[in-house]
Structure prediction request, 68 residues.
Amino acid sequence: MIKLLKTDGSEIIINADLIEQIKETPDTVITMTNGKKILVENTAGEIIEKVINYRQKIIVVSSRTGEI
Prediction:
């Protein structure tokens, strides 16, 4: 899960595994696998960085528990 900032100033937490596509038009639009679109303040680069950090944390936790 990653925390992002919507264009209305509120925070939203989304499942990073359900992101299908990210476009900057110039606002950033995230399209989820179910077709839902979310408009956020974060740039595509920031979102990618958050997804990478999220997945790295999963790998670290999994390696500690011996599940990899």
About this structure: Helices lie at 44-65. The longest helix spans residues 44-65. The first strand starts at residue 2 and ends at 5. The two ends are 20 Å apart (CA to CA).
